Design the sequence.
């Protein structure tokens, strides 16, 4: 993750991975982590051989991150950034970077 407002890795950003579907509303929490000094998690959120097909959601806790950083005087337009995606076959790599600022973000499917 990259904090584009300060041009530094987004260190200390909480991320959750949920499996969506028939489980309780909000999905089933599969894993969570906090980014390190390089803006990356120390290990993948999915630590298995194959990711089962289905619909998933990554939630980035950017409001907490910006409050911790005191960016933009501690005010962030964004609070939670959810990214929903579908896994169709489990033998693919899923890397989803987030480029963030107090007022906006962009993401893409990385390699």
Sequence:
């Amino acid at each position: 993750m990259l904090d584009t407002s300060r041009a530094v890795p987004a260190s200390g950003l909480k991320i959750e991975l949920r499996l969506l579907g028939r489980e309780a509303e909000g999905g089933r929490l599969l894993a969570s982590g906090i980014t390190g000094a390089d803006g990356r998690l120390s290990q993948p959120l999915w630590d298995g051989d194959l990711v089962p097909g289905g619909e998933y959601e990554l939630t980035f806790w950017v409001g907490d991150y910006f409050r911790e950083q005191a960016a933009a005087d501690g005010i962030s337009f964004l609070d939670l950034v959810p990214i929903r995606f579908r896994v169709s076959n489990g033998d693919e790599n899923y890397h989803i970077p987030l480029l963030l600022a107090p007022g906006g973000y962009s993401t893409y499917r990385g390699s």
User: Anything to note?
Assistant: The chain has a mean pLDDT of 86. Helices lie at 62-69.
